[in-house]
Amino acid sequence: MDGAQRTRVSLLGCVALFIGALHAFSPMDSEFTFLLPAASRECFYQSAVQNGSIEIEYQVIAGAGMDVDFSVVSPQGIHLVSEFRRSDGVHMVESTEAGDYQICFDNSFSRFSEKMVFFEVILDHPANDAGADDEWAGLGEPESLLEYKLDDIKESMETVHRRLERSRQMQTVLRAFEARDRNLLEDNLWRVSFWSCVNLLVLLSVALTQVYTVRRLFDDRRRVCS
Q1: Fewest CB atoms within 10 Å of the CB: 106, 154, 165, 174?
Q2: Which first-to-last residue range defines the signal peptide (predicted)?
């Protein structure tokens, strides 16, 4: 293989790696944290393709009771998921229809307490995988000119991509759990501090009352003796 062919092989490999990285790390999911007011309902819409999948995970990270009503409605208006007074949940919608899915959080049962809700939507787009495979196959021609296998490179990059995505998702979920635990700790700390102050005031009041009562008894005895 002469120098020109080696240069061509190197360029093809670089282009293949670049395009594969673009496909591997293209945004396919989203996450959002929002404040759900009391006695209100918020809905979000997620577009989906035919025969794909949607994974939805949510958590209530702040607010009294730490619970909301959750529902998922298909583009045809069919209720796929309905949950009531839950603090978290994970749901998978397989074989999706083409259209917009409705994701709703309902806090209408709470008249005074607002809730902070975190949710993440992960999409699986089969069309993107097929297109990526076609591009990889096209870049691999002619295969006799390549000194390495593009299929092995593609498989390795996809494995790394899946692990990185899973790690990022786990970190996001752990951050949501951390925020929820921190809010619970702050709420419990306020309650403990409040009742500790109340108990301290009660103890001081009782002690002062006892001292005053004892002094009055001694004063009364002195007057009787005199």
Answers
A1: 174
A2: 1-24
Number of domains in the chain: 1
Q: Say yes or no to pLDDT of 41 above 70.
A: yes
Confirm whether 50 is domain-assigned: yes
Residue length of the chain? 226
How far is the C-alpha of 208 from the C-alpha of 205, rounded, in Å? Answer: 5
Q: Which domain holds residue 78?
A: 29-124
pLDDT tens by residue, 127-176: 555 555 555 455 545 555 455 566 677 777 777 777 777 777 677 777 77
Residue 86 lies in a domain: yes
Residues 6+ apart with CB under 8 A from 222: none
Query: Is the model's pLDDT at 78 over the cut of 80?
Result: yes
Cα 214 to chain centroid distance, Å, stands at 62
